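Feature request disguised as a bug report, sorry. It would help if multi-protein outputs had a clear separator. Right now it looks like this:
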Amino acid sequence: MFATLAGGYPLGALPGVTDPLAEARHRRASDLSSPDAHADAADRVVTELVAEQAAAGLAMVHDAWVRWPGGDGLALARGLLAGTIGPAEIATAWRWADDGIDAVVKQVLPGPWSASLALADGDPARAASIRPALADALAATTRALLDATCPVIQVQEPGLAALGDDPGALHDAAGALEALVAAVPEGTHLSLALTGAAPHRSTHDRIAALPYRSFLIDVTAGEDAWRLIEQLPAEQGVVVGAADARKPGVDDPEMLVWAATLAAESRGRGHLRVGIATSGDIDHLDRRQARRKIESMGTAVVLAKLGPLSDVARALQADPATCPIGSLRAMMAAHAAAQR
């Protein structure tokens, strides 16, 4: 079991510390500094952020899109489509994040389906016209990252939850995601992240058949998220997005251990193929809140390593469905409903 972020992380400074990236961006926008000076400031912030994640106990970290204007996955998609950001630049940025850090550094990329819809302001026809060029840019970026030895590439697809039970949209979305896998070497660890809500249960079989090595699934979305996990083959890794990205409070480590346990026991997957994550981007949180949230995930990882995962979970809370921890009771109720 390991812990990781699902997506964004706040870039603001901790209390009493000047925000070096905000200052560098302001100076660059005002032509008061050079591109190299801005890049140097971004490099320092990336080093700080990945070190902060690792110190909190996250074994898989990422750069939170610090370097790119807009600072999120959609901004990265926009830059790739416009040609203002290239695959080589993203690979170089990943190398910097990976340099000297004692943790696995993944790269998080926008998914071709969700990003094209967002860039098209939800217009399906316009999104369809954008998608081929974006898909080509994402495939080229993935190959550049592989050349740089990036071990895990996470593809963000929050828009799959909005498909509903539309078979035509599901066919198109699945086709775009399969094409990305087909465009990169066999064996590439592509991880598909489904955040924000759970996909409609009518789509679960098709999503589970997508050839991704692992899935990050927002289990705060309720019983349909657990139904999807039950559909995934045992050989596919599952990262449960159980640390609630919507709430600033600290997540209970016992609930996080139980979330991983449920995923590990699903279809006999085992603890080596599971992880825990935030349920989505936490870049809207205060930096202190975000730091406490990832530290609670690190605590859960420490607890999970005290013995066999299932034994640890039951030692922490023998009857999680009726325990005093509200978040754990709610998760167990959603999991139980998914079994019916």
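(second protein starts here, but nothing in the output says so)
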Amino acid sequence: MKDNLALSVRAGAEDSGVRLDKFLSGALPDLSRTRIKALIKDRRVASGGETLADPSYRVKPGQGFAVSVPAAAPAKPRGQAIDLAVVYEDAQLIVIDKPAGMVVHPAPGNPDCTLVNALIAHCGDSLSGVGGVLRPGIVHRLDKDTSGLIVAAKSDAAHAALAAQFSSHTLTRAYKAVVWGVPSPVAGEIAGNIGRSPANRKKMAVLRRGGRPAVTRYRVLAALGGAASLVECRLETGRTHQIRVHFSDRGHPLIGDPLYGRGVRRRTASLGESERGALARFRRQALHADRLGFRHPTSGEALRFESELPNDMKALIALLGAPDRA
């Protein structure tokens, strides 16, 4: 087994105040900034005997850094022959239309049968390992019960290029959601820092102090009988559970959301018994990633993909009534 690679670099006067990840990626051109960030967060960067874990740490002139780069290791998850809805694939990347219920990568409670397991079987040795041992090829995530489009990298170069587009917000991500009520105004922006809820660490929340900036742009596509509405959402940032948290905070939680939904009994009081029963059986957040657009990491070509609403969301919209265009 190969030993870790030990690298040493020292900051110059011109590097004063530069972010640690930016400085190291410039000083170590063989490592992408995405890889550098992962190493920092894995506590593999030290200075003066002190471990550094914050990529935004500001460098001081003359400061020395020791970077430990682990030898490349094969992905631990095993490949599993799971059917995938492949929308696009080439030597650099693959775009999948993920069904609701599929976890993206292995985690406690979901050790296998994930998208990663399926990708390992489908892509073989070409799958990028930059995403980490348990997340090879993964550039971004969708929640388990969110359906729709997701892109994975098949090479380290593609992973770095796609990650850069996510970081700079130069790609397009659009979602359709069915929310309770009709947001007012019918088009606008929801901005609010998102972080762990101080009341429940399993949930995220809009925080008045702390958290990370998050912006969701939306427009109501159709009012559904007054009780709910079909909404298009575009992400300017990509925080955990962002759409779900933002709309819940505004009093319009996503229908079926088991974590952020509230007041369901009150909202369904005007509906018939069969409608209430059908809504009770809709046990996932009504959220679908229907559009994804980005520049190809090698050719620079603008790629754009669309995904039709899944049948369960179509049935939900029909159940709530004929759409009244907003």
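Even a blank line would do. Unrelated, but nice: The mean pLDDT is 89.
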